[in-house]
């Protein structure tokens, strides 16, 4: 078995996964299962890892964007996450879905990035267009309420402190278990549950406030 950690500089991440620069997405790759792709990537087949990136990039970037609230930071996080994943493929045991394993790496990279950002500059309010692509592409007259609610939720999630935002996105959006969230964020399971409770409460107060809660919603 090839040592994929020995030559990480050979890796070229496909930054636009909708296009394959080498034209190697043949049926043997596009029809392969994720487990098969992982095995082939571990064996040193770079095209197999390119296919993994193509299949997972959208969700990985979406997670990074929600955790960092910044497109540039999210791109850097995803790039670093795929590099780490590539170097660690031989340690992927298959006891969890590959997507879940990758989300944990993305979460770890995002936590590192937001920590560095807080140390070097103040948090900036992200541009309103950051989450525009998450709106449904349907008739606005039929889905106005859904779009409005999604906008409110996106705005409320963005405004959460990073320590709360990370937990609720990982748990409620990407369905990671509490122990995985705790491990990747470097906190206890109890702390993860407490943060999740606080984050959900703040979102409810923001989006569905009860009488008297409007003044306290963040």
Structural features, described:
With 218 residues, this protein is mostly helical. The chain folds into 2 domains: 131 residues, RNA polymerase sigma factor, region 2, helix turn helix motif (Rna Polymerase Sigma Factor, Chain: A); 73 residues, Arc Repressor Mutant, subunit A (Orthogonal Bundle), CATH 1.10.10. Helices cover 62% and strands 0% of the residues. The chain starts with 26 loop residues before the first helix and ends in an 11-residue tail after the last helix.
Helix content, binned percent: 55-70%
- The top-level CATH class of the largest domain is Mainly Alpha
Largest sheet: none
User: Which oligomeric form is depicted?
Assistant: single chain
- Mean pLDDT, to the nearest integer, reads 75
Count of the domains: 2
From the coordinates shown, what is the CATH architecture of the largest domain? Answer: Orthogonal Bundle
Give the number of DSSP strands: 0
**Protein structure class:** mainly alpha
End-to-end separation in angstroms reads: 53 Å
Strand content: under 5%
pLDDT < 50 stretches = 1-11, 18-27, 122-139
Gyration radius, to the nearest Å? 19 Å
CATH superfamily heading of the largest domain? RNA polymerase sigma factor, region 2, helix turn helix motif
Number of helices: 9
Question: What is the global morphology?
Answer: elongated
CATH level-3 fold name of the largest domain? Rna Polymerase Sigma Factor, Chain: A
Could you give the order of the helices and strands? HHHHHHHHH
């Amino acid at each position: 078995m090839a040592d994929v950690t020995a030559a990480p500089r050979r890796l070229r991440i496909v930054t636009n996964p909708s296009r394959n620069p080498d034209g190697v997405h043949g049926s043997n790759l596009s029809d392969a299962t994720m487990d098969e792709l992982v095995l082939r990537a571990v064996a040193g087949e770079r095209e197999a890892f390119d296919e993994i990136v193509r299949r997972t990039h959208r969700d990985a970037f979406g997670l990074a964007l929600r955790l960092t609230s910044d497109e540039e930071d999210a791109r850097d996080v995803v790039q670093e996450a795929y590099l780490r994943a590539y170097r660690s493929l031989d340690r992927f045991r298959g006891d969890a879905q590959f997507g879940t394993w990758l989300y944990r790496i993305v979460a770890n990279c995002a936590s590192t990035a937001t920590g560095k950002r807080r140390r070097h500059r103040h948090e900036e309010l992200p541009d309103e267009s950051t989450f525009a692509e998450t709106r449904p592409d349907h008739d606005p007259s039929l889905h106005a309420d859904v779009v409005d609610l999604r906008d409110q939720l996106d705005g409320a999630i963005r405004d959460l402190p990073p320590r709360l935002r990370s937990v609720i996105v990982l748990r409620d959006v990407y369905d990671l278990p509490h122990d995985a969230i705790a491990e990747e964020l470097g906190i206890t399971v109890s702390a993860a549950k407490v943060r999740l409770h606080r984050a959900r409460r703040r979102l409810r107060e923001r989006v569905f406030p009860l009488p008297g809660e409007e003044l306290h919603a963040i």
